[in-house]
Amino acid sequence: MSKYKLFLLRHGEGAWNKENRFCSWVDQKLSENGVVEAQECGRLLKEQGYQFDQVFTSILSRSIQTAWLVLEAMGQEWVPVTKSWRLNERHYGALIGLNRAEMALNHGEEQVKLWRRSYDITPPPIDESHPYYAEIYNDRRYSTCDVPKEELPKTESLKEVLDRLLPYWNDVIVPVIKSGKTVLISAHGNSCRALLKHLEDISETDIVNVTLPTGVPVLLELDEDLRPVKPRQLLGDQAKIQAAIKKVEDQGKANAQNK
Q1: What pLDDT shows up at residue 101?
Q2: Matching HAMAP family, A to Z (predicted)?
């Protein structure tokens, strides 16, 4: 029997999503389409009668901006929003800024799929010569983290995303849910996938095939032990959702041109 409702949301389309580039920890705002996605998500949730008590986001603007737009569309701007780097997107290391389709052309679609979707394969690490290294690690927001800046990741597998996310989930988010509050986590494709793997006990093999489109809320109905009592629900027009999932999956193909 369902006792708690948890909503996961991959942020609306970002500027680099549109350009089919690995965005990761580079701070990007939403594209025009991403703003619309977030607003439509909020309207959908309002129409279906949902209300939130607490929202959690990463410390990246596209995640925060999405939460703001959703709450505004729902008329729930007053709901508290808590931010943590532990909900950040996966750190793609040296791949940050590169075009996925060009990478598939140069390295093969299978290699790009492994970098993007596998559980325990880690991309090459970022170093100080990388064009976005200084932008990331000199950013003031990372001086507020709960670990020293020098201990922040330089690359991550999905497993490592889950490893840094779980303490925050267990220590901060779980007590809020178990207090009876309805929570929205507005985060990123990989931080949401990592949490889904944990909650739904998805195998390392099967998580490769879990795709979350931008701006589509995922409803999880959980029992008292925070285990799902029914399959996850992607809310909205199902034909549009399937088309959006295919669009995300095609981004790693050599013939993808900013799809």
Answers
A1: 82
A2: PGAM_GpmA
pLDDT grade, residue 65 (50/70/90)?
A: very high
Band of residue 252 on the pLDDT scale cut at 50, 70, 90: low
Q: Residues 38-60: what's their mean pLDDT?
A: 98
- Between residues 102 and 133, which one has the greater pLDDT? 133
> What is the overall mean pLDDT for the chain?
93
What's the gap between Cα 20 and its chain centre? 16
* Domain residue limits, the chain: 4-251
For 33, 62, 146, 258, the CA distances from 131, given in Å and listed in that order, are 27, 21, 26, 22
Three-state SS across 140-180? Answer: HHHHHCCCCHHHCCCCCCHHHHHHHHHHHHHHHHHHHHHCC
Q: Phi/psi at 105 (nearest 5 deg)?
A: -65, -40
For domain 4-251, give its CATH number from 3.40.50.510, 3.40.50.1240, 1.20.1740.10, 3.30.450.20: 3.40.50.1240
Name which of 39-48, 63-72, 244-253 the model is least confident about.
244-253
Catalytic residues: 11, 89
Q: Which residue has the tokens 């006792």?
A: 3
Please give the annotated binding residues for substrate, written as ranges: 10-17, 62, 89-92, 116-117, 189-190
The H-or-E segment that residue 54 falls in is strand 54-57
Which positions make up the binding site? Answer: 10-17, 62, 89-92, 116-117, 189-190
Q: Among 66, 111, 118, 101, which residue's Cα sits nearest to residue 248?
A: 101
